[in-house]
C-alpha cells in the first residue's frame, strides 16, 4: 500500500468555477503513474469525498502522467456551509489516501 | 493578410502586480495588443453580490497607469475584462473614471470603449419564459425567493462585442464580465488566425506567467498564427516548458481536454507541445468546434443574510481533548438561551461552529486525528439582519468564554484574541445561478459605448 503523497510529485486542488472542484495528481514517472491510474478509481474518490460516484469525473492525461479528478461541490463556493473558498484543501484528502 | 498576432499579458489580474522589466521586454517584441483580466468569481460571491472590487483602487490605478503609458508609447490597444473583479456596470464605470483621469494627467487622447454586461432581473425572467436559459450541472434552483434576493446578474461576453470595439478603433477597451479567454482570443480571431490556436493560446495566457516555471513573474507573450501558437514568459527567470504549458490547461478546468466558450468549444485532445528552445513552447493541433447555438454563461449572487463571527482559542488540555463534547454543549446552550430570550421572536438564524486545529477546513471529510495543543473555535452567526446577528453574538459571547464541560468543575476561561471577540461581517452573499443564456446575436445584451477623451 502506498500513500498517494508518496507516489506523486504534486497534488493540487482548486475551484473550477463556483460549483466544481478539480484535483490534479502529477505522478512524475511511468511506474507511479500506472499505480495511480490503476489504484485511484472513481469509487475510491467517492468514498473519501462522501459523494456519489455520478458527481465525479475522472480523466487520464497520459502525456503529462496526470490523473485528474473533478467533482461537483456538495456546498457551492462561498455558501454558508462551505469551509474552503478556493477548494485547495481537498488535495490533502487525496495525499492521505492509500492505494495498492 | 496578417501573418501572426502577438498578445502581451502583463499578469493574471490587474492589482496583482507585474515586473516592469518583464513588461518592457514584452514591449520590445512589438505586441499587437495588451490584454489583462480584472477579476473572476474565484474569490467568492461577495464581490458580485456587493458589486465591489477585491483589489485596492490605488494599486490598480498605479498598474493601469503603467499599462496606459505602454499602450500610448507603442500605439496599440489595451483591453481589460471583468472590470472591478466581478464585471458589474459599476466596475466598468470605475475603470472608465480611472482611465479618463489618468489620460488627462498624462495628456493622452484616447478612444475608450466600454462594454456593459450586467442583466436586469426582468430581462432574465423574459429569457426564462422564452426558454433561452439552460441550467448547467450543478445549478442552484431558481426559486421566487432566490430571485427576489439576487443583487447582480452578469453574462460573460465572448469575443464578438470586443471585436466590435476593436473595429471601431478603440484604444482602450473596458469590458464588464467576459470570459478570461475572450479578451485574448478576440484580436487573433479578427485577424483570421487559427481558431483552435487562438482560444488555446488565450487559455494558456489568461493567468499570465502561471503557465511558466515562475508563476509570480507575471508577464507572458503569446503569438498566434495560421497553424498554432508560441508562448514565452518575459521575465528572465521564467521559462515555458511543454509540461508547464500543457499543465496550465488543467488549471481551474473541470475537463482537461474541452473548454466551452461562447459560440463553441476548444478541444485540445490532439494538441502537441514542442519546446522551441529553453524559453519557448510551440503548440499545434488545437481544434475549435463551433456550437449550433450561441450561449453565454450567467453569474449571479443573492443576499443570503448578515453575519457576525466570534473567535476564541481553547488551550486547557481537558477542553482540547473533549472539544466535540464542548461544542455540542455550547451549541445546545446557545440555542436554548436564544429560545428563552427576547431574540426568539425575531427571524431565523444559523449558528455554525468551526474548530480550527481539528477539521475547520474539511469538516466531515477530515480523517486525520492529530491532536493539537490548542484549538481555535470560530462561531459564525447568519441571520436576516445585522442587528439580529450581532445580538445573538452578544448572547453567545459569555458561553464561548466560560462554559464548563460539566456542572461540578471550575468555570474555564478561553482565550479571546481581541476585544470585542465578535466581529460584524456585514452582508453575506451566495452564488445564485450556474446557467447559460442562448442569444440570437453574440452581441445581444452587451452595450457598447465609445468616447473620445
Protein architecture, described:
Chain A has helices at 30-39, 42-49, 90-95, and strands at 2-3, 10-15, 20-26, 56-61, 66-72, 98-99. With 100 residues, chain A is of the alpha+beta class. In chain A, a hairpin with a 4-residue loop joins strand 4 (56-61) and strand 5 (66-72). The longest helix of chain A has 10 residues, at 30-39. Chain A starts with a strand and ends with a strand. Chain B is α+β, with helices and mostly antiparallel strands and 453 residues long. A ten-stranded mixed beta sheet of chain B has the order 13-14-10-9-1-2-3-8-4-21, sandwiched between helices. In chain B, strands 5, 6, 7, 16, 17, 18, 19 and 20 form an eight-stranded antiparallel beta sheet that branches. A three-stranded antiparallel beta sheet of chain B has the order 11-12-15, with helices on one face. The longest helix of chain B is centred in the N-terminal third of the chain and has 18 residues, at 57-74. Classes of the chains: A alpha+beta (100), B alpha+beta (453). Chain A binds chain B through residues 14-20, 22, 24, 26, 48-50, 55, 57, 59, 61, 63-64, 66, 68, 70, 72-73, 76-81, 83-86, 89-90, 92-93, 96, and chain B through 41-46, 136-140, 243, 246-247, 250-257, 304, 350, 352, 354, 360-368, 380, 382, 428-431, 434.
Reading the helices and strands of chain A in chain order gives EEEHHEEHE
Q: Tell me the span between the first and last alpha carbons of chain A.
A: 4 Å
| Sheet with most strands: strand arrangement of chain A | 2-3-5-4
- What kind of oligomer do you see? heterodimer
Q: What's the end-to-end separation of chain B, in Å? A: 31 Å
**Helix percentage range of chain B:** 25-40%
What is the CATH domain class of chain A? Alpha Beta
Largest sheet of chain B, described in full? 10 strands, mixed
Mean pLDDT level of chain A: 97
Shape of chain B: elongated
Radius of gyration of chain A: 13 Å
How many individual β-strands of chain A? 6
Tell me the number of structural domains of chain A: 1
Amino acid at each position: 500500500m502506498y500513500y498517494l503523497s508518496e507516489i506523486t510529485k504534486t497534488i493540487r486542488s482548486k475551484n473550477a468555477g463556483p460549483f466544481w472542484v478539480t484535483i490534479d495528481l502529477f505522478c512524475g514517472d511511468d511506474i507511479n503513474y500506472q499505480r495511480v491510474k490503476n489504484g485511484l478509481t472513481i469509487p475510491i474518490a467517492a468514498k473519501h469525498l462522501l459523494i456519489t460516484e455520478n458527481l465525479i469525473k475522472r480523466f487520464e492525461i497520459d502525456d503529462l502522467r496526470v490523473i485528474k479528478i473533478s467533482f461537483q461541490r456538495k456546498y457551492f463556493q462561498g455558501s454558508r456551509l462551505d469551509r474552503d473558498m478556493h477548494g485547495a484543501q481537498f488535495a490533502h484528502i487525496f495525499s492521505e489516501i492509500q492505494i495498492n | 493578410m496578417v501573418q501572426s498576432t502577438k498578445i502581451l499579458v502583463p499578469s493574471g489580474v490587474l492589482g496583482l502586480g507585474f515586473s516592469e522589466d518583464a513588461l518592457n521586454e514584452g514591449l520590445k517584441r512589438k505586441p499587437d495588443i495588451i490584454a489583462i483580466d480584472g477579476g473572476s468569481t474565484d474569490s467568492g460571491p461577495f464581490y458580485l453580490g456587493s458589486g465591489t472590487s477585491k483589489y485596492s483602487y490605488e494599486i490598480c490605478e498605479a498598474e493601469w497607469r503603467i499599462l496606459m503609458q505602454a499602450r500610448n508609447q507603442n500605439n496599440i490597444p489595451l483591453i481589460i475584462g471583468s472590470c472591478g473583479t466581478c464585471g458589474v456596470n459599476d466596475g466598468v464605470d470605475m475603470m472608465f473614471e480611472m482611465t479618463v483621469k489618468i489620460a488627462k494627467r498624462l495628456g493622452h487622447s484616447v478612444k475608450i470603449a466600454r462594454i456593459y454586461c450586467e442583466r436586469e432581473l426582468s430581462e432574465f425572467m423574459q429569457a426564462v419564459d422564452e426558454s433561452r436559459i439552460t441550467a448547467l450541472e450543478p445549478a442552484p434552483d431558481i426559486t421566487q425567493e432566490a430571485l427576489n434576493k439576487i443583487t447582480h446578474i452578469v453574462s460573460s461576453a465572448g469575443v464578438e462585442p470586443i471585436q466590435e470595439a476593436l473595429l471601431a478603433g478603440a484604444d482602450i477597451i473596458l469590458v464588464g464580465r467576459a470570459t478570461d479567454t475572450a479578451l485574448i482570443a478576440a484580436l487573433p480571431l479578427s485577424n483570421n488566425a487559427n481558431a483552435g490556436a487562438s482560444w488555446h493560446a488565450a487559455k494558456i495566457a489568461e493567468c499570465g506567467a502561471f503557465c511558466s516555471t515562475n508563476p509570480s513573474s507575471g508577464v507572458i507573450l503569446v503569438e498566434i498564427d495560421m497553424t498554432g501558437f508560441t508562448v514565452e514568459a518575459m521575465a528572465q527567470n521564467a521559462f515555458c516548458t511543454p509540461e508547464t504549458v500543457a499543465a496550465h490547461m488543467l488549471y481551474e478546468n473541470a475537463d482537461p481536454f474541452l473548454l466551452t466558450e461562447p459560440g463553441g468549444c476548444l478541444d485540445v485532445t490532439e494538441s502537441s507541445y514542442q519546446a522551441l528552445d529553453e524559453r519557448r513552447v510551440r503548440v499545434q493541433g488545437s481544434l475549435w468546434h463551433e456550437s449550433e447555438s450561441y450561449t453565454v454563461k450567467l453569474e449571479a449572487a443573492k443576499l443570503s443574510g448578515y453575519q457576525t463571527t466570534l473567535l476564541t482559542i481553547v488551550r486547557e488540555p481537558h477542553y482540547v481533548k473533549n472539544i466535540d463534547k464542548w461544542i455540542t454543549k455550547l451549541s445546545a446552550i446557545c440555542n436554548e438561551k436564544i429560545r428563552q430570550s427576547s431574540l426568539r421572536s425575531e427571524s431565523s438564524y444559523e449558528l455554525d461552529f468551526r474548530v480550527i486545529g481539528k477539521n475547520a477546513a474539511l469538516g466531515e471529510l477530515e480523517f486525520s486525528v492529530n491532536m493539537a495543543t490548542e484549538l481555535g473555535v470560530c462561531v459564525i452567526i447568519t441571520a436576516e439582519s445585522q442587528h439580529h446577528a450581532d445580538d445573538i453574538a452578544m448572547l453567545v459571547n459569555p458561553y464561548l468564554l466560560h462554559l464548563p464541560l460539566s456542572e461540578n468543575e471550575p468555570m474555564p476561561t478561553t482565550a479571546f484574541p481581541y476585544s470585542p471577540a465578535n466581529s460584524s461581517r456585514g452582508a453575506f452573499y451566495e452564488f445564485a445561478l450556474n446557467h447559460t443564456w442562448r442569444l440570437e446575436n453574440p452581441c445581444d445584451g452587451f452595450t457598447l459605448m465609445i468616447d473620445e477623451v
